[in-house]
## 1
Amino acid sequence: MIVSSGKIADEGKSRPAGGPDGGAAADKLPHVAGPIPGPKSREIFEAEQRHIAPGRQRISLLAGLALDHGEGATLVDADGNVYLDFVAGIGVASLGHAHPAMVNALGEQAGRLMVGTFATAERAEAFRLLADVAPPNLTRSHLYSGGAEAVEAALRLARSATKKHEVMGFWGGFHGKTGGVMGLIGDESKHGYGPLAAGQYLVPYADCYRCPFKLKHPSCGLHCVEFARQQIRNSSAGAIAAVIAEPMQGTAGNVIPPDDWLVAVKSVAREFDALLIADEMITGFGRTGRMWGIEHSGVAADILTAGKGMGAGFPVSAVLMGEQVSHAEPFAKPSASSSSYGGNPLAAVAVAQTIKTIRQEKLVENARRVGAMLLGRLLELKEKYEFVGDVRGRGLLLGLDLVRDNTSRRELSRKVMEIVFKEALKRGLLMMGYFPRVRINPPLVISERQAQTGIEILDEVFAYVRDHVDWHSG
Ligand SMILES: Cc1ncc(COP(=O)(O)O)c(C=O)c1O
């Protein structure tokens, strides 16, 4: 069915029509022939390895693939194998790959003007559309090129607005790898980079499956938020400018907190006259079945950072803010918040085209509909396989915890997870399944049929692990 030794399926490079339920891209299914990686992939990968410095993404190293092109929710490697993409460049490829409208828009703009700084009609349109889809209180924005850069800018803005300097973030949080935000990484990956920025405090996120207080929501009364309050009181210098939170945590494993959590977090921020920064790099732009992750809890953020899916692959990010905050100095002084590439004409076109396409193709609704189906199918897998400990999801942001037993909740070993990843790949599914907190975040254009196929592959992989792998140990 999915693995075949036959001829590679049709892999035309152009897509006649976009949209989750129309056009060739929506019909395209995975098809893998021969060993993975194939000979051409191997040759290109090895050539690259000769000069590329170590430290690239684990998924690319584990896969060993060289990609040739993408189409909708599928990727095609150099040997012509077709994979279903449950990664989307870690939430970047919102419109899938090679969306014809984006290809045309960028191509046309590249032939006219690529360098930024001055106002252009395209940039004016991008800012207008951004304000149009933004939460109602966030009417102004700045454009940047990467996520960390936008979060750094958001912190500078919060400092300008409050005249304070400290920040509180969360365990499991990720906001980028630059100096000002590295201390907000809520895991061990920052070890070895000290000293980290001063005045940054981390408290437990509402990661209920792995609650460090061993409590259950709602009977816990959101103890983690009370802990945060005490942490600010007892550990800070009394100068908290901002609380920064992902409305749902991506890097930690697509973790979904209870809806009342962010409401309580905002009230703590207010108690200390701090601003709430919602880092929506992953959760924004329709990923969770709403335009913004904060909509699920009804919380109004003071500052919001967006990126990834916002440019559908073009490197662009944003800081969204309210009118009053936007005038805070020094951030608001001429040249104080600009950058060389932020909001350049290509980036502006990418943002505008992404918003138009999300609206035209009803991709937020698609994320909600296909995501609900995926969640239902994953819950069935939880019933079927003992090692599926937790399943969660909002729209097309879904996570699973694979565990050795459901009492200790000890994670499956790295070795077993690499088998999961490679068995999925062999069957044509590219998925962040190499960590025991499995992340599923396909392009928003994925069709129901493609998503069903992905789950069928996952079912086959889990059956293989159950029957052929000593998953209890390592
Ligand atoms: C929530 C969040 N914020 C910020 C970032 C940093 O983005 P970038 O890798 O573009 O710097 C990421 C990246 O994964 C993220 O998930």
## 2
Amino acid sequence: MSDLRPFIAGLPKAELHVHHVGSASPRIVAELSARHPDSRVPTDPAALAEYFTFTDFAHFIEVYLSVVDLVRTPEDVRLLTFEVARDMARQNIRYAELTITPYSSVRRGIDEKAFMAAIEDARTAAEAELGVVLRWCFDIPGEAGLEAAEVTTRLAVDLRPEGLVSFGLGGPEIGVPRPQFKPYFDRAIAAGLRSVPHAGETTGPQTIWDALTELRAERIGHGTSAVQDPALVAHLAEHRIPLEVCPTSNLATRAVTDLELHPIRQLAEAGVLVTVNSDDPPMFGTDLNTEYAVAARLLGLDERGVAELAKNAVTASFLDETGKSRIAGEIDRYTADWLAAPRA
Ligand SMILES: [Zn+2]
């Protein structure tokens, strides 16, 4: 098979499962760290590269929390958000639903309204200056319990920023049953937000059923353990409930022990609408282009197949129909031009 990386690099793409703080690249962390000299995070690129080399999952959490600690002011929030969009533009990502955990920032003392203004300012600037359309998913950090759920719901519903389209649930799944969050999802859905909880990443198919029946999920974050339950796979396929699959993340967190054993192909062949995403890209040593290359290999795709995969993300997005056909059209034109061009 030909090397698909140059094709993937230029392909217009949409990303549906990527975390705000988790997208802080070493370049962005260096900028934030320079703003807060008292932090113990290195500022020079070589030391940072080493800092970002994870030894295990506990180390990943430690680094993640040290980056959370660098986001202290509304200006930090704006810088992080805009610079994440800059990294997306470099990969030809045209549209992203960025998962933000406002509870972490608000609890750290950032003013709620200033936080919303900062992300919205970054969103409009990213669209105007970088051509990247951003939308938000506010997620409940599950490990922080019902108080975090209450705060997140209040912020989403009462202070709803213009770019907010969906409501999620992240953090660990083990020991954090999904059904307890039903009242919060009910409120968010009643306010017009779409339900996109993480489920079935590190626990079995029952968690995905709970996300569907209790939290009325329209899309599932990860959802890879669905493969263990044929009835669930059939349900996802029949009702066109997309999965946000993040292959390298699954390997990094040991949700799968080997990429070759990743269930993406089985799910796709069963007719499930599969999308490819990067989750916390710099922290997992990846980016969306790399995830597409991984998925193309696991799924056995050529250029046309990769273009279809990119269109799955557009289909599964919460863009309006005009926005969807604009990006799908860009993907089609790019692919047709690529395949028509003579190549050595
Ligand atoms: Zn995630």
## 3
Amino acid sequence: MSGEPSGLIADRACGSCVSCCSFFTIAELEKPAGTLCSHSMPGGGCDIYAERPNACRVFFCAWRCWDQVPDDWRPDRTGFILGGRLAAGSFLSVTTDPDLPESWRAEPYCSQLKAWARQGDRIGSQVVVFSRQRVIVLQADTELDFGDFSPDEVLIRDEAGRFHKVPRNRVK
Ligand code: SF4
Ligand code: SF4
């Protein structure tokens, strides 16, 4: 899913990776998570590139735009997509390939994700794993496993920094 805005790492290209066109739900196209989009072309690319949905226009994985992600962590190689970044008030998401829900636990990935989680604890950020419907927050040496989420549930963080799984309609 690409445009070419500023802020992307110069020598990284999507190439044949189509992970974000597969792993994510695209509501505008009624495309479910874990199904390759019907507009994805063999070898990579999009056959409606000029008219692609906004969700596709705005998304770039962290491998494309955060220079702390190692070069060889392109999502079609790791089995998960990193999104966002580790920064105060923000979080780094790890969305696994639905066919490889434990991909993030393989090494060297797991050790690096937990190192980022420890770094996040110091600066007010988190690493959050989305593995099928399951959500796990990594913190220092702890895994907060919130189990499976229904479409009507979301994860929130209170003012004290604690996470809670709550009904979506309770969030303002
Ligand atoms: S997951 Fe990242 S590298 Fe792969 S196609 Fe999407 S933006 Fe490109
Ligand atoms: S519309 Fe294009 S960019 Fe968006 S998910 Fe489908 S193939 Fe990917």
## 4
Amino acid sequence: MIAGPSGPREQKGQPGLVSAALSGLCPRCGAKTLFSEPAALAEACGSCGLDFHALERGGRFVGVLTMLVALVLILAALGIDEWLRPPLWASFLFWAPVTVGSVLFALRFWKTMWVYHQYEESQP
Ligand SMILES: [Zn+2]
């Protein structure tokens, strides 16, 4: 495989994006500086100074995404409730972490995808 200067745009599927979202890797230097909180972007990269907030212009979609994830989870919870009829405490024990985890991961993944996309667009 040839590693050209054209970057990840040439690659299909971008397998690195999931790990970049999980670890919060800076698109420019690869340091783990993208997130300052579990689902909040840092102001800028502490390692190379890349301005993340300037790249993040997808903020208005994030709320929609959160609602979609929550909606899917609520429907899934209702379906499982109908099917298994678990006790309430079991439902809560299961769905509380699943919901929080899914929303956090969806947010991280979305923001990482968006910042990487914007970063590539901003490259000459
Ligand atoms: Zn950086």
